[in-house]
């Protein structure tokens, strides 16, 4: 992910779906595009939850509980080419 938004929501009155929805809406408002991925702490994500309205949900230990890291998922091959200085090729 090149650009992302870290959203914090520890409100007990909102469901996980609402919290992620708020993060997605704020990202879209700020960057003008809908995110494709949301990273959450493994303890936050329910086992049967894998996507929400086109946003893929992934777990990451480096994301703290109650935090939602949303953004555009980067193609791993493109990221590798960028790190090698070959973004234009391919």
Average per-residue pLDDT, rounded, comes to: 83
What is the percent of helical residues?
Answer: 25-40%
First-residue to last-residue Cα separation:
19 Å
Structural class of the helices, strands and pairings? alpha+beta
SS summary, helix count: 2
The 3D shape can be described as globular
Described by strand count, sense and barrel closure, the largest sheet is: 5 strands, mixed
Strand element count:
5
Following the backbone from N to C, one meets helices and strands in this order, namely EHEEEEH
- Which runs of at least 5 residues are low in confidence (pLDDT < 50)? 79-83, 85-90
Radius of gyration: 14 Å
> In what range is the share of β-strand residues?
15-25%
Oligomeric description of these chains:
single chain
Total domains = 1
Which sequence of strands runs across the widest sheet? Answer: 1-5-2-4-3
Brief write-up:
This protein is an alpha+beta fold.
């Amino acid at each position: 992910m090149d650009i992302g938004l870290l959203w914090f929501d520890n409100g007990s009155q909102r469901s996980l779906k609402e919290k992620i929805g708020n993060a997605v809406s704020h990202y879209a408002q700020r960057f003008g595009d809908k995110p494709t991925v949301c990273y959450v702490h493994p303890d936050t994500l329910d086992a049967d939850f894998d996507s929400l309205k086109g946003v893929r949900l992934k777990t990451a230990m480096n994301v703290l509980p109650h935090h939602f890291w949303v953004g555009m998922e980067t193609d791993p091959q493109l990221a590798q080419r960028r790190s090698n200085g070959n973004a234009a090729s391919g």
